[in-house]
Amino acid sequence: MIQRGLIIGSEEIRTEEVFSVYNKFSNEKLAQIAKAEEKHVDLAVQVAKETFHHDALSPYERYEILNKAALLLQKRKEEIAKTLVAEVGKTIKEARIEVDRSVQTMLLSSEEAKRLGGEVLPLSASPGSENKFGYYVRSPIGVICAITPFNVPLNLSCHKIGPALAAGNTVVWKPASDTPLSAYILMDTLLEAGLPAGYVNLICGSGASLGKWLLQDQRIGKYTFTGSSGVGKKMKEQSGFRSVSLELGNNSPNIVHHDADLDQAAQMCTLRGFFSAGQACISVQRIYVQRDVKDKFLEKLVEYTNKLKLGDPFDEETDIGPLISVGEANRVKEWIDEAVGQGAKIVVGGQQDGAFIEPTILENVKAEMKVVCQEVFGPVLTVIPYDELDDAIRQANDSEYGLQSGIFTSNLNHAMYAAKKLQTGGVIINDASTYRADLMPYGGIKNSGIGREGPRFAIEQMTELKVVVMNL
Ligand SMILES: NC(=O)C1=CN([C@@H]2O[C@H](COP(=O)(O)OP(=O)(O)OC[C@H]3O[C@@H](n4cnc5c(N)ncnc54)[C@H](O)[C@@H]3O)[C@@H](O)[C@H]2O)C=CC1
Ligand SMILES: O=C(O)[C@H](O)CS(=O)(=O)O
């Protein structure tokens, strides 16, 4: 069984208290991980701060390390994918995709390390500044605290650690307690790629306790977080003047207009809606379909859904694995039952078996049902008819969230109209809201968060602009 300590500076520190990590399908115990106390948080921040002040790595060295780390991840793809299957419960097919995407995220970050530039400012064009010459550069912030979630634990961590290092920062990192093994993989990979000790410090343990100590620590210059809106809100409130990037929840709307390729729309909504058993913040959740084509679309949606196979996530044939815990599956099942109690109809699915929830399609839903207005984070699609496009857009926007949305239509004017009117950080046309390429700016408005990820955009938020003015 794996036993790991906290990685602070060059030490792997064992602690008295540990916590266990389980295989999410078989419940077999996989690992025992050291649980950080307040003194460890203090030490991790101290080491990160001291390492930052040494300022040892040049941009090219940062590029080399991140590039090498990407290649090492690629080389170990299968082994890493198996760890993701075990600790998250995602299927082996999904896990391989996550490793491929992590490689891309690290490569993109490495490239950005070479592009950290600035701009000459045309100061002489300002009256009274004829003798001035100026420019700005981007400087690292210092110590960045990364707090990462369980659902895409490797790639979403790469999206924080990669840009933070590329920009010249140091990091204190707290991964989700359900899935720390992929964090150790990334940590070991970075060290093997030549990252000197102290640049990334990995501390594990309870989110609430570590979160409290990390937020109190004024030596931390920035927080970058992916997770629930509740925790994100706390971080925003407690970080004061320090910067936060928050990638939070969503209840992604997708519009299927009458002129769409219905087969493509149904296939994409099924594939992307049930990917990772719906545990993605851009997972398809609300499908607004024009009334004239609702029955035909629903028929196709059911047809694709019925082809999905639930089961052992290690099995190459499996499409849907368990949720992260039985507790989460209980919650999703309660939400389904509550909706049914309030008049919703189960078109397909709806049953629970331990941590598994059948891929579920609901209709006759109402805007105030949890399965519509909150983030399900499970394999549940709701299908809602509409008459006019404006009405679909109004309902799509009627949400506290605003991360990504999708629209299926063959009419360019409809597509562009929706792209303008949908209140989300990203609008995906003729694919589902769940589409994400790791290089694009990714993030939400409203309660879906603050800031954008995608290495180029994350780096903008992990650096400060410094203006230099010369009086000539
Ligand atoms: N946007 C997304 O990708 C994600 C959304 N969620 C949403 O959140 C729900 C709950 O999932 P959880 O994993 O429990 O999310 P969470 O927000 O509790 O956990 C995310 C990370 O924050 C840490 N954390 C927990 N409490 C904290 C605190 N007080 N201060 C600082 N860090 C803290 C956790 O240990 C973990 O590393 C999901 O059902 C889903 O709706 C969860 C994970 C990812
Ligand atoms: O937060 C999430 O759930 C992810 O950003 C979705 S993705 O990046 O894995 O597509």
TrEMBL record:
Domain Aldehyde dehydrogenase: 17-468
Pfam families: Aldedh
Keyword RNA-binding found: no
UniProt cross-references to SUPFAM superfamilies, sorted A to Z: ALDH-like (SSF53720)
Keywords for this protein: Oxidoreductase
The keyword Oxidoreductase appears for this protein: yes
Family: Belongs to the aldehyde dehydrogenase family.
Protein's name according to its UniProt entry: Acyl-CoA reductase-like NAD-dependent aldehyde dehydrogenase
Organism field: Caldalkalibacillus horti
